[in-house]
Amino acid sequence: EYLRLALDVGQQKKDVGANFRRPDWLTTDQDLVASAVIGDDTPVAYHSRYVRMSSGIERRFRPDVTLGAAISIEKANVVQEANLGSLTAAQRTQHYSLIGVPLYLKLDRSDDLLNPSRGYRGQANVIPYRSFSGPDLTFAFGRISASTYQRLTDSDRYVIAGFAAVSSIEG
User: Fold this and answer.
1) Contact criterion met (CB below 8 Å) for 27 and 52
2) In the predicted model, what is the mean pLDDT of residues 67-91?
3) Which of 5, 50, 59, 139 is the most exposed place for a label (fewest CB within 10 A)?
4) Distance CA 8, CA 124 (A)
5) Element housing 89 (H / E)
């Protein structure tokens, strides 16, 4: 088991979070995972205060293939800060309560989990969301990412790596 606590502090983002993992939950190669984050985002366009919680299962089908599924809940208050026009304070403020089902598939064909020198990794994520209070929202978030590693000499001292990702929100 492990519990990881994190504190992120930046100019436009502050949050505190916790991640929990219980390996081999109910069966071998299946982990119980849970996370919680409380945060405050302040980019130029908006100000958002939020709480996110999720709990799910991660299953390793082979050493290089992992599938995960969870239930997530997010509650946020968002205030529009840019392009205000004639909006009142109440019109600029939105209160969101969302439930989501994060699903992901990971492929890891690299030679080392922490210090890869050859191989590749890929991940596909889909999260359908639905609001359960506040504005009526239904949408889905998708992301595909990949990285590749190739050492340049016989030793692992020099490695060239590349990363790419594409994401979209529909709905």
Assistant:
1) no
2) 86
3) 5
4) 25
5) helix 89-92
